[in-house]
Amino acid sequence: MEAFLAQVLSGLATGGIYASVALALVMIHQATHLVNFAQGEMAMFSTYIAWSLLNAGMPYWAAFFLTVAISFAGGMLIERLVIRPVEKGSVLSVVVVFIGLLVILNAVAGWIYSYTVKPFPSPFPAEPLFGAYVSSHGVGAIAVTLVVVLLLWAFFRFTPLGLAMRAAAQNPVSARLVGIRVGWMKALGWGLAAAIGAIAGMMVAPVVYLDPNMMAGILLYAFAAALLGGIDSPVGAVVGGFIVGVLENLVGTYLIGNELKLTVALVLIVGVLIVKPSGLFGSTTVERV
Amino acid sequence: MAELLRVEGLEAGYGPVPVLHGIDLALEEGGIATLLGANGAGKTTTLRAVCGMVKTRGTIRFQGAGIEKRSTEDIARMGIAHVPDGRGTFTDLSTEENLRLGGYVRADRAAVAQSMEQMYAYFPKLAERRRQQAGTLSGGEQQMLAVARALMSKPRLLLLDEPSFGLAPLIVAGIFEILRTINREERVAILLVEQNAAMALDLADHAFLLETGRIVMSGPAARMREDETVRRSYLGY
């Protein structure tokens, strides 16, 4: 029983990370109705930026927030320079651009920082909490995820800018008619997603260590989480993240062994798409054609 | 009275299909003009062209400034509010959020709140539906919401695309009554596209008759109503 509890708790800790990446995916999907395959690599690159800042002697939290700010600007820049020109093209061409972005970010990170695995510090104490079941870092990562979700919720719920972003995503034509600059709202969505991704990257790096491929598996779990929760629901992304984290851990430990854990994500993705494509919290939309 | 809107030689279309073949029209500050015409004559396209929603050629001057090259967002910010066909409601948002979005471009938050109360006074039904998701409102209520949202920006010019569409006659009469009040009290000029020519000519002081992308007749609404062709083709008696 104790071992079981430990597995659940550590599942929650990794689930928090999946939740943040899933949240970033949902953000971009909300703003642009696209699923960003390069989200993981963007987060990885942000984490390298944080690593550089830390190596330059910056205190952890200063580096943390500066990285978030840089990533925000970088995300907006990517939208303006790379995504905007192909946005009106077919879905497939946008997907190809996403894949290209993924490969380029991965290669550039490898080129600048090399593919050697690097340790990345955690801001939380090394002593475990709750009688050794779960690391302080795990608890800290969950707390950070929840704070991010709360801030996002408040932003979309209470600020005029958040309302304008929702309006622009939902009905771009009407949004323009009330004077909302829809193009900027999309860029803002990308900026927010990049910032959330950066936080996820900095939370995951102490666990999986920093290397250019660190997000590959995580992105797959995040896809599963976002789909399970519903790709248009921020709350769903977070709940989905925690469910996937726990499920992955339990199935890995008790059923199929750790080597085959990644298949859990794939089975989940296929399963959700077959049984309930809108996910647990997503809304079903009907489109007239 | 000062001229608010002047359109000259306006051509517009969708892709390779031209819809408007050189339209001229003008509207005075605080005036009400209506565009009449059969389906496909180009009424909706004319409104879209004024708002920069379709590619155009020709000149569109609003308060003396050329706006034909401006983006829809900029035109909205300059004081032209468009109630599009299909109403353009943000269906997932609440009534109140829809109204708040209408006032999005205004900096003065207190004045926006005041306008919101004003709208609830014009349309008491909307006040009852404050927190309700806009998509669940009835057709008439959604039309009221669309008009109220447009007015929230304190526009100088209101473009209305078939406000009577799909509504019961009694509701339509109510909406037209409010439009008259708003025009008088807020000094908002109105350019109205309407299938119901009788009601439109009743409200407007000036009318333009569109046929396949050209203005074929225009004049004071009262005179247009007496015209033989207009009467037979559009008023049906």
Task: Give keywords.
heterodimer; A: 289 residues; mainly alpha; 11 helices; B: 237 residues; alpha/beta; 6-stranded mixed beta sheet; 40% helix
Task: Describe it.
The complex is a heterodimer of chains A (289) and B (237). Chain A is an all-alpha fold and 289 residues long. Chain A has a domain at 20-215. In chain A, 74% of the residues lie in helices and 0% in strands. Chain A has eleven helices and no strands. Chain A has helices at residues 2-32, 39-55, 60-83, 91-113, 136-158, 160-170, 172-177, 182-208, 216-229, 234-256, 261-275. The longest helix of chain A has 31 residues, at 2-32. The radius of gyration of chain A is 19 Å and the shape is globular. The model of chain A has no long low-confidence stretch (mean pLDDT 87). Chain B has 237 residues and is α/β, with parallel strands linked by helices. Chain B has a domain at 1-32 and 39-79 and 194-237: Rossmann fold (3-Layer(aba) Sandwich), CATH 3.40.50. Helix content of chain B is 40%, strand content 28%. Chain B contains ten helices and ten strands. In chain B, the strands form two sheets. Chain B has a six-stranded mixed β-sheet, sandwiched between helices. In chain B, strands 2-1-4-5 form a four-stranded antiparallel β-sheet, covered by helices on one side. The longest helix of chain B has 18 residues, at 169-186. Classes of the chains: A mainly alpha (289), B alpha/beta (237). Chains A and B meet through helix 6 and helix 7 of A and helix 2 and helix 3 of B.
CATH architecture title of the domain at 1-32 and 39-79 and 194-237 in chain B: 3-Layer(aba) Sandwich
Biggest protein-protein interface? A-B, 17 and 24 residues
Average pLDDT level of chain B: 89
What order do the helices and strands of chain A follow?
HHHHHHHHHHH
CATH fold descriptor of the domain at 1-32 and 39-79 and 194-237 in chain B:
Rossmann fold
Along the chain, the helix and strand elements of chain B come as: EEEHEEHEHHHHEHEHEEHH
Please report which band the strand proportion of chain A falls in: under 5%, 5-15%, 15-25%, 25-35%, 35-45% or over 45%: under 5%
**Proportion of residues in helical segments of chain A:** over 70%
Overall number of strands of chain B: 10
Q: If helices are DSSP runs of H or I spanning 4 or more residues, what is the number of helices of chain A?
A: 11
Rg of Cα set of chain B: 17 Å
Class by alpha and beta content of chain B: alpha/beta
Number of helices of chain B: 10
User: How would a textbook summarize the main sheet of chain A?
Assistant: none
What spatial form of chain A do the alpha-carbon principal axes imply?
globular
Taken from the alpha-carbon principal axes, the silhouette of chain B is globular
The CATH superfamily of the domain at 1-32 and 39-79 and 194-237 in chain B is known as P-loop containing nucleotide triphosphate hydrolases
Helix content of chain B: 25-40%
